[in-house]
């Protein structure tokens, strides 16, 4: 008999470092500028807000477990087959569902050295291991990812664009990666920041996934649509994958207000365009200005920039100075980048506040 005094988690759970989101408060500052979570700083659009408010009258009713209304809207908007869509409480849940469906103890996932932490957490929770492909140029390459694949690899995760580095993979690179994988390995392509990409050699992987039995493409309503607080994400998957995931998906994992707001957001092209315009205007301005202060800024295809300092101490000093000015950005030491800060592109006033503070920090 064991001498246990309390229920014990299964092996490995207590070894997982919990995910820590960008902080939202500064002691003594009533309304700080929160630029730490890559949210849409224009907020949700008017149509989404009105749909959310109208949904209040129905919050006593369970949501449609199939999210039929949203399923049809997403399928129409992106030209996808509705039966191949997986909806989740954010795209984070889609990753967790895929890991739960396909990983067994001893299996592994492969992702980039700086890949989104959510992929890893649920893989470890399923007693699988995580293999990280090196990103010496802050970008996961097909060759580096394929080099990590072994006989126990079940899923390969790629972020394009990638958080927190801002790098992306070209359409040709994604095709080359897919061609190099065994057909029994699932390739998951996370396109959370897709709507912000302007580079001509990037393409959505929806068409590639349409004719494949082992590609899942994920999107989120948290970024361009400004619905981070409602937690709506989806995956476009082979029908067999979608049907397998549906067997373990919780029956009411997407809320009534979330469904209604997401449908309205898809139809609000004016808000989407305003959100794109903000990033396309300020991302290059922020990049140029911060480089002018003597700091490295990595090229970014997302709604944020990653600023690299001379060392971790200088990054910490910059973070502290920004906080003293009421600005919250994201240290990314948890990604193995202790000398970097990730800064969400905000409104004009917010961006100018960031630039003023970094200019003063550099001068001091």
UniProtKB/TrEMBL annotation:
Q: What EC number(s) would the UniProt record show? A: 2.6.1.9
Q: Which UniProt keywords apply?
A: Amino-acid biosynthesis, Aminotransferase, Histidine biosynthesis, Pyridoxal phosphate, Transferase
Oligomeric state and interaction partners are given as: Homodimer.
A single GO molecular function term of this UniProt record: pyridoxal phosphate binding
Q: Which organism is the protein's source?
A: Brevundimonas alba
Pfam families with a match to the protein in the record: Aminotran_1_2
Q: What is the official name of this protein in its record?
A: Histidinol-phosphate aminotransferase
UniProt xrefs under InterPro entries: Aminotransferase_I/II_large (IPR004839), HisP_aminotrans (IPR005861), HistidinolP_aminotransfase (IPR050106), PyrdxlP-dep_Trfase (IPR015424), PyrdxlP-dep_Trfase_major (IPR015421), PyrdxlP-dep_Trfase_small (IPR015422)
Q: Which GO terms describe its biological process?
A: L-histidine biosynthetic process
Pathways involved? Amino-acid biosynthesis; L-histidine biosynthesis; L-histidine from 5-phospho-alpha-D-ribose 1-diphosphate: step 7/9
Q: Which reaction does it catalyse?
A: L-histidinol phosphate + 2-oxoglutarate = 3-(imidazol-4-yl)-2-oxopropyl phosphate + L-glutamate
The main enzyme category here is transferase
The UniProt similarity line reads:
Belongs to the class-II pyridoxal-phosphate-dependent aminotransferase family. Histidinol-phosphate aminotransferase subfamily.
PTM-bearing positions, type N6-(pyridoxal phosphate)lysine: 223
Q: Which cofactor does it need?
A: pyridoxal 5'-phosphate
Domain named Aminotransferase class I/classII large: residues = 32-358
